[in-house]
Every structure is written in structure tokens, then in C-alpha cells.
Amino acid sequence: MYSARLALFALPALVAATAIRRGGGGQCNTGSLYCCEQTQDPKDAGPSTITLLKSVGVDVNDLTALIGLNCDPISVVDGSTCSAQAACCTNNYFDGLVNIGCTNVIL
């Protein structure tokens, strides 16, 4: 009975720990770690962002994850920090001007 309760309470904590990386680990489960000036829902993207994504062949209607704007890579090895929004992103376009497939993370 106690093991069933423990499993019941441990499962949400495990899911949260894998969804958002905390504690300065600086690792992403998928994609690369970036520091973005802003992340936004694709349906809130402005016309210039839409035009940039279309120019590289991205079907903006298929986007479901966040879009990262003005992103720079974060490297834990060299001590990089992020004073804006840290995010794991799967695709980088125009040297970080626009990234897609992003998930916000807490460092």
C-alpha cells in the first residue's frame, strides 16, 4: 500500500523533472540550449517572423512548439549565462534570429 502511494506521488515529480530542466544542469532532452530575447506561441508571431520562416521552407501552420527570437547558444562549459529566456530549441535559422521547436527551461 505504501509503495503504491509513493509511486503515485513520485510520478508527477518525475514528469516535471524531465519536462523542465532545473538546477543549472544546462542540458536539454531534445535540441540545443539557447538564450532567447523572447519566446512566443507561433500564432502570436509577427509578419516578419512568418516571412523569415517561410523563406527557409517552414510550414508555419504546422508549428506547435514555441518560436525563439534572437537566440544565442548557451554553453555550460564556458560559463555562459542567460538573463533573458532560456529555451531548448530543435531548429536554428539565420544564426539564431529565429529558432523553432522551443521549450522554455529554468536554469
Automatic annotation (TrEMBL):
The domain of life is: Eukaryota
| Database matches in InterPro entries | Class_I_Hydrophobin (IPR001338)
- Single GO molecular function: structural constituent of cell wall
Q: What is this protein called?
A: Hydrophobin
Which keywords does this chain's UniProt record carry?
A: Cell wall, Disulfide bond, Secreted, Signal
Instruction: Provide one Gene Ontology cellular component.
Output: fungal-type cell wall
Matching entries from SMART domains are given as: HYDRO
Q: Which CDD domains match?
A: hydrophobin_I
- Bilayer-crossing residues are none
| Family of this protein | Belongs to the fungal hydrophobin family.
- Give the UniProt subcellular location, in the record's own words: Secreted, Cell wall
According to the record, the signal peptide region is 1-17
